[in-house]
Amino acid sequence: MHPFATCGRVLSVGDHESIRMSRELLLRSARYSVISLTSDGVSKEELPSDLEIAIIGQTVDDLTASRMAANLHRTHPNIRVLRLTGQYSRPGFGFDGAFFIEDGPGAFLCSVDELAGMGGR
Fold first, then answer.
1. What is the per-residue pLDDT across 3-22, written as a single tens digit (0 to 9) for each?
2. Residue 62: left (phi > 0), alpha (psi -120 to 50), or beta?
3. What is the pLDDT of residue 1?
4. Which long-range contacts (CB under 8 A, 24 or more apart) does 24-29 make?
5. pTM metric for this prediction
6. What are phi and psi of 104, to 5 degrees?
7. Residue of 59, 43, 29, 52 lying closest to 115 (CA atoms)
8. Which residues pair with residue 80 across a beta bridge?
9. Rounded CA gap, 116 and 118, in Å?
10. Cα–Cα distances in angstroms (integers) from residue 64 to residues 29, 41, 69, in the given order
């Protein structure tokens, strides 16, 4: 188990099922409560009000990711949005943090933990 894990509620968004499911399993192993959806699913689902973090994966195109971040900030004022990108990509605007996927799972969990700590606790 990850030593800094909280038990926060996380929305994990990705448009490639195996990547999204792998991220969900990693987050669950660190004791996060995870809702895993496609970018299309986010616009169709009613999201719980207690989401702390949204993670928008690298498989979501930049325009959709930015729009989603803006909408999440509007509907969930306390949420923190983390954008995952490749090392040579820019995350765009409207995110509370960015993470390069090449940095690996341990660093990813540390980034999530750091954002969880920023969420008004």
1. 444 468 999 999 999 999 99
2. alpha
3. 43
4. 26/105, 26/108, 26/109, 27/55, 27/109, 27/112, 29/1, 29/2
5. 0.88
6. 90, 170
7. 52
8. 53
9. 5
10. 28, 12, 9
Chain Cα centroid distance, residue 92 = 15
Closest C-alpha to 100, from 22, 110, 70: 110
Rounded Cα distance between 81 and 89, Å, is 17
The tokens for 12 are 């994990």
Q: Quickly list H helices, 7-80.
A: 17-29, 39-44, 62-75
Q: Is the pLDDT of residue 117 over 90?
A: no
